[in-house]
Write a structure and sequence with these properties.
The protein is α+β, with helices and mostly antiparallel strands and about 700 residues long. Helices cover about 30% and strands about 25% of the residues. Strand 16 and strand 17 form a beta hairpin.
Amino acid sequence: SLGLKLNSTSSSIIGVGSMTSAAQSACQTTVTSRFSDYTINTTFHLLPVIVQSLPSQPVSCNLINIPPRIRQLLADPQFHVPGVVDVLLGADIFFDAFQQRKLPLSHCSSLIQTRFGWIVSGKLPVVTSGNTHSSLAVLEDSALALFTTHAKMSKAGEEDKADHHFMTTYSHSPTGRFIVRLPLSQSPQVLGDSKLMARKRFFALEKRLASNPVMADQYKTFMAEYLALGHMELADLSFQGPKYYLPHHAVLKTDSTTTKLRVVFDGSAPSSSGLSLNDIMLRGPKLQPDLINILWRFRLHSIAFTADVEKMYRQVAVNPDDCELQHILYRSSPEDPLKDYVLRTVTYGTKSASFLSIRCLVQIAHDCADTDQKRIILKDFYVDDLLSGGSTWETCYTIYKKLQATLGSHGFTLRKWCSSSTELMKHIPDTPSDPNFVVRLGEDGIVSTLGLSWQPMSDSFRFVVKHWQPSLHMTKRNLLSDINSIFDPIGLITPVLIKGKIFLQQLWVLKMGWDDPLTADLQLRWTSFYSSLQHLNQVVIPRKVILNSSTRVELHGFSDASQEAFGACIYVRSVADNGQVQVRLLTSKSKVASLRATTIPRLELCGAVLAAELIHDVLGELRMLNIIVKPSDVHLWTDSSIVLAWIKSANLFQSYVANRIARIRDVSSQNQWKHVSSIDNPADLISRGVNSVDISTST
């Protein structure tokens, strides 16, 4: 705006805490005092922002007694009003500008005379603020180096700040939808130019789409719907404030029953200042239970149902004041001009998107007087997926109607309803405007929910292992990808997968690099193991673990260890009022043993800790559903007489044993621990592993 000639530069300005600012332009100019003939000529390096507005809070001038004659000679007559800092002088100029005169003021502050006029310095009477800012200028390569450091917030403090920001800034539209502000940790002024970067990324995207016409059509359809729903609109190009442009790309999800292609936006793409939108965003706290807890409860219901929130993120509007940080560049055809749009809703790919959308659900729950609805919204959602259930189909139908009304009033529409109860499915009507409102499946139909394959008609879990084609160059990196492709969050096939994890650990022993090719012998062993996983397609595991009309529920936890691995498993034993008894595996967990030499009893002890912690956590989920398990009906089993003696002993132990015994006693009772023979210990399968052919016969 000053019309100065800019020169390209590439300087990294490093300050306190190794914080780096990238200066890409510099200029030579002269600075002259308003009160004397003092003049300097120097080089200035340009940054998007020097520091946030100073002072951080307005200063109470009434409490500062500045003499009238000096008030006319202040370098900044508006020093008491928060304002933008335009220039920061280096140490060589800064001290040369100081003169000798100094006048004390009240409140530990002083008037100091400089060649640019009088300045007020020291502790000033301002409104208390929780924000802390500090700045420092240093001379680097005869240039001005400037930077700002912010007191680093702890993770908990940052999470609290994000939650407080939501509570004090959210609102509702006339239709009941949530309108939120983006939780920023810094001023968007620190962002540099991002349009050039977004433009380059879009042209690269266009080239990729040109080589894949099917994907190009899906991309065009997705963006056309985005525009038609009002989730984005043409930008107001007259806006002069800070902006941020989000690059975008396609993500394919072939197993989706609705949207096979999704456009994802990149909030981590750096602007010319080196900072991205995500860099100045607060992530927010974790608001929902762990996946494993939701899946445990899903198995405890007599009748189960699933659903998800349609386009959950995009049902939450972003305050128009923040939409300028969500620009995108797009055109449907290379022949069209490239247009500038703004996204009007919470956007996946931005750091706070998950927190903002989930926090809206949490707020709905807090505002809900119905305790059952509140529990389900708080405890049975994992992001936008709902996994819940009830004791009867009538109970589930009541939940369905209430959730549709409560969540729908805020724009969150539940769809893709599916249930193990045919009666419940009869009462949930099809919706002509949404063919995916209800998922109606045949006898063998499978629903993918939170990574698990559930067959509602048989009410069982299945594993879908695709035909495996070994890589031409087998490496440790490829093998890790292979084993992670089998998703088993609650440990239904732990004994099979532990064999693969033990094999991977052996590669570490051999000191193989991530991309070192495996020897022929190792390739043969892995091929034999992974090819056999096809047998998992035949495994059928009932979802429901408790009999209907149970009068008694018991929990049995088993632990075991070998030199290679240790683990634990939890079984539920239920007794119905007619005397029928059923025992089902609920969950299991394993860990590969440390490469450091450890005795078997110590590894057995680690397995016992796992069993105690698992059973403690499972008891919490049972209580949440009002399923009562008496302390006398909780049983923990180990085949290690040494571990059993440690748990029941009053002796003092060395720290390794003492710490783990203390943990076991903290989450379980000594009298719950019993001995089981190795041949009768199901956790023995976890510690040594089994072939996938044999897992279906293991109970």
